[in-house]
Structures
1.
Amino acid sequence: MRFVCPSFSDLYEPNVEIKTFPDGDSYVRVPSAGEARGKDVLLLNRLYPEQDSSIFQTLLALRAIREQSPKSITLVVPYLPYSRQDKVFKEGEIKSAKVLCNLLKREGVDLLVTFDCHFIKKEGEFEYGGLKIMNLSLNRNLVEKAREIAGEELEIMSPDEGANYLVEEFGGSSMKKERGDYREGKEAYREIKEVKMENDVSGKPVLIIDDMISTGGTMLRAVENVKRGGAERVVCTASHGFFLKNSLEKLRESGEVFVSDTIPTEVSKVSIKKHLEKIPGMEKE
Ligand code: R5P
């Protein structure tokens, strides 16, 4: 039994209604929730953009399904918001990634399926915040696509050591990134102090791969390094592309850019659909 939210309409026919009341409150209805009784249920929703309201809408949909006593609930969220907030950097902060996982568990999620989850950095099944998580990686699909674009001889790199797991199986290496303190002002953004590269990339085509491109700060610094090092061509990619602060345009000025459709964008060239079809229950409808 599969419940699909409208955020997934590019891949599957939605059967969950999500609207907004005039005051901004969320309206969620799962018309066929009654059929969930005793069944293994899948709920598919993208939680970005507008992550806070999307999370709340997911909790409402889960409650509507859970009230029908399904046998199990698997939640499919291609990009997990808050996954970068899994550490306390300053006293008084909380690990919001853990709070989100706690909430999903409490609302009846037996398994969360997601892609390249920032705080996991490995493929497989894990437990975090009391929630069972299946983390899938898109690295092989991204590398395959990059090789189609720029040839087999690509030098593969990640822009920081946190993303090393994406490149190690291809003999790739990682740059070293250091972040500083939060900037002044309302935006919670930790400055990038430096992104250091030691490789000789002169005359080579280079692929830079990360789990996400958010403001593009990391990727732009990595691209700068590679260009300064005399690379012949630069392709950049990530599983999740937010492309905030005009970063898509800026990256395009230096090379080719593509991402997956965990968040649909105009440069989403790798689809998660093949992976989703392998989830038990997905193949049937
Ligand atoms: C952080 O460690 C992540 O892997 C990404 O490198 C980072 O979140 C990208 O953010 P931004 O695009 O804002 O530099």
2.
Amino acid sequence: MSNYSTRRSFLQTISLGIGTTIAATAIAGKNKYAPPGKEQKKLGVALVGLGSYAKNQLAVGLEQAGNCYLAGIVTGTPDKAAEWSKKYNIPAKNIYNYQNFDQIASNKDIDIIYIVLPNSMHHEFVLRAARAGKHVMCEKPMANSVKDAEEMVKACKDAGVQLGIGYRMHFEPFTREVIRLARKKEFGQTRFIQTNFGFSIGDPTQWRLKKDMAGGGPLMDVGIYCVQASRYVTGAEPLWVTAQFGPITDKERFTTVEESVSWQMQFPGDTMVNGFTSYKSNIEQLYVSADSGWMQLGPAYSYGPIKGRTSQGEMNQPVVHHQTVMLQAICKEFMDTGKFPTHINGDEGVRDTKILMAIYEAAKTGKRIPLV
Ligand code: NAD
């Protein structure tokens, strides 16, 4: 179980501000999910892997989103199947295990398969979901290698299905406001971004500490938020990266993955980024310094409430349930256009995977790794 998940979950505040107009804005005729005069269809989502994030966050979002619902589950644990079936009224025909999962292809109740398994399993299950002809959401980090990530994109393209990555911050109002302010240059050109995300990890036996399952340490798990943030704030791609591993202070936990890593990136427009991620330090911050002012989020990436200030004072934005607004927005876009939002699609996941791998290469070799 992820510590930052449990640490933050009690802080969640629910707001359904976004998405309540979905039925009203659905375009009759164009939207096969909302025929005129009929109640809007909800997209059926099947969760694959019923661990902490599926149980404590995504299932809650699916209950509240309004335009989608928990239609099916895929689990290797019969006890969980029974518990979830009862709690969410899921019929037996919509419950699968990892072996018979492929039969989901013929299940008309399932529109989207959402992969919430350990990182190393994302590749296999995205490919199987695509082969089943279902649209796919996959949790971050998309994959443990660029090759796997690219194969996932190709498999979904070949199957004619959508692929999205669970980049929830794109739908969070404080984050969206920082993106707007930075991209519109409300405080001038962004010159420097400081971004950190780390937490103190618990159970030394968990998969997050095993390189073959996690792909790496905190960089893969939470540092990815910082990489994403530097890209969504600038709206650009980094030119190069340098990086350094921090010391291993805990020899019990950090035998195969890093304990912490710092990195530096240059973006076009001479914007410099300093990133840091750790499984030992409780830290999360996004600081954006521009020519005539600054923006800061802290907490910046956990489930909230996110808090923000700019050089002009407090930011006032609604506090939302991240997974609810994410699911609402993705499903609305899909029902309106037949596509998932481009800013969270598989290509975005590939871009991030390339950067994560370049950070590891830079930290291992001590070299500056070009990214263009
Ligand atoms: P978790 O350990 O709580 O759950 C993992 C699930 O996978 C469990 O149900 C477990 O039974 C199942 N599983 C199947 N085969 C397994 C195996 N061989 N080893 C271990 N577990 C196995 O993990 P989680 O925190 O729910 O994370 C799942 C995914 O979701 C990860 O990719 C993680 O990065 C992502 N995640 C995303 C966010 C977010 O905010 N977007 C937050 C937490 C986790």
